[in-house]
Amino acid sequence: MTRRAPTSARTGTGIPGWVLVVAAVGALFVLLPIVAMITRVDWTQFVALITSPSSIDALLLSLRTSVAATIGCLVLGVPMAIVLARVPFRGRALVRAIVLLPLVLPPVVGGLALLALYGRRGLLDGAIPIAFSTPAVVIAQTFVALPFLVLSLEGALRTTGQRYEAVAATLGARPSSVLFRVTLPLVFPAIVSGSILSFARALGEFGATLTFAGSLQGTTRTLPLEIYLQRETDPDTAVALSLVLIAVAIAVVAVAHGAGEPLRRRPRPVREAAS
């Protein structure tokens, strides 16, 4: 009597068939709402809807502030990730939890926290009057996007280990030379993918921006805020702008995923780092 082949063998992947079925259901769970939105778009007026003055202002402001927030994440996040991955100290787990807090903190709470620090009656007593201004948008976006870069880079640093750095140091390389010629080139793909993910998170930020920066056209009203306002007055415009934001997000995530695969920059030889 011929025995039936296991389900995992029949799939040709070595994975049980039921796993593929559940994975397909999960993909549809994400895909179907987007498809439903696409069916509601008024394609005859699509270009006109997304090119209104308020929509253009919101899109350009979102792009400018998201780029600035990504730069802020790089400046602050790379050193933080290196310290968390390479420097042993008491309380490191607590510091990591605090750094990653914006990942789980409701954005509105983050906005209130920023307002409590920088607001007119905040902890700084209005010494830095940036609330409800364009810099406030950048700060809010950086606050919520920073953990994405730190998490990606710290994981890459832990995976690569310290073998090459130790060899370079043994050959006489200074700490700064080891950092810029060995460590950072080793984890460059993680820096790129983390930066792209931070940009995407900043681009989609809503709650902290609204709470801390407000919604002033051309000054603090980013694309997510514009979509929220248009939802009440012009649903067709809100759907069209949402589709634009979805398209940008898909492109960004695809680039971030691709950055971790073919993009590989080998570190300079350790002897060159020591020179």
Percent helix, as a range, is: over 70%
State the secondary-structure class.
Answer: mainly alpha
* CA-based gyration radius: 23 Å
Residue share in β-strands: under 5%
Beta strand count: 0
Mean pLDDT: 85
Distance between the termini: 72 Å
Question: What sequence of helices (H) and strands (E) makes up the elements?
Answer: HHHHHHHHHHHHHH
Summarize the main sheet.
none
Inertia-based shape: globular
Helices, by number, come to 14
Low-confidence stretches: 262-269
Summarize the structure.
This protein is mainly α and 275 residues long.
Question: Secondary-structure blueprint of this entry?
Answer:
Elements: H1 7-11, H2 17-39, H3 46-50, H4 53-86, H5 92-99, H6 107-118, H7 134-160, H8 163-170, H9 175-186, H10 188-203, H11 207-213, H12 223-233, H13 235-259, H14 270-274
What does this structure look like?
- The structure is a single chain.
- Helices cover 72% and strands 0% of the residues.
- With 275 residues, it is mainly alpha-helical.
- Helix 7 (134-160) packs antiparallel against helix 10 (188-203) and helix 7 runs antiparallel to helix 11.
Keywords:
275 residues; mainly alpha; globular
